[in-house]
Amino acid sequence: MKKDNTYIKYQPASEELVQRLVDDHRNWAISIAKSIARSWNLDWQLDGIDGGAFEALIFCARRYDPNIGVPFRAYARKRIHESCTMEAKTSKSWQYNTGNNENDNETLEREVSFKLFNIYPSLREGVSLTTEDGENSANHDYLLRTTVKILLTSANLINMAQEAQELNNPDNALETTNILSMLANLDSVHQNILWFVYWQDYSLRSLAEEWGVDELVVIREHQTLIDYLSKQFQSARGQSSKLKLRPKLRPLGNILNNSKHEFPFKKFKKEK
Amino acid sequence: MADKINRITNTIPRSSKINKTSEVNLNSISSIKNIQKTSAASRVSSVQRSTISISAADQAKMFQMVEEEASKMFEGQNISNQKQETIKNSVKRTISASEIDEDE
User: Do A152 and B73 touch (CB under 8 A)?
Assistant: First the structure.
């Protein structure tokens, strides 16, 4: 990353620096707000998304230290994006049950999209998701396609979890039964990752904290799991081999297996 | 013609006295351990993890990929068309909201 010396002469957290940063990057923050509003079919001003952008811009400007050598936009983008999406979620346009089926579908799409950003925070920086396929790691289109597959699989799981309460509806029950029985065959750690992230709205970071495990390990295992599930969904009979747990999570797997804790999807499947 | 030989001066430094011998400090010698069993060298990670920035030009390409990959994923699954559209559109909205404006 190219070092930015534009603000090196200012004292961190000084009024002069804050004012300069806000002036220099105001339009850029607005462009993030507009991008989110456009994607989610909202109004960037009427729905208050611009307010979220400015609030985060000022927040970051006050905390930015030019001596670290990180460009301000790289430092602030994720925070501004997160603030904009939070503001959008609380807007009046983000409503269900308006009696308009089309509007409800649109709100559901926004909900799924919002959760995708929470699960994959790197997307807020406009960065693709990673692949552990060393051979194709330098292939631009391969990385884009991997990102798409991962997002589709995760969106499918989010949508399924949101409709879990509607399993009394025979149509929904039919659609999800096959997927649930596939999930019930996964390793205990994998089942718990899916349960807490997709059904209980945990972030991967908070789940790693709760387990006392390195966050990066959980993030990578989640991505490997989703990659595996995307192949399962595409294959009519599913892959015959079970996904192996990475070594750093095996002690956790042993604890879960030996405890009296019932795996989330086996329990879920029995209830229905 | 031979050069004039200069006066020979004493260039040999005066030798210092020989130090007394001192006993060897056995404490500084570490104990000998048993020969350890050989173990495999740690695996060098060959996993490369790369990321790229998603640009506006990539967005159109990714939207096409969403359609392609979704049709593969939903094939054989009993998922309603409405649900399929919801899932595809939510991914497209996510891609659109994460692209970096090249003018930034």
Answer: yes
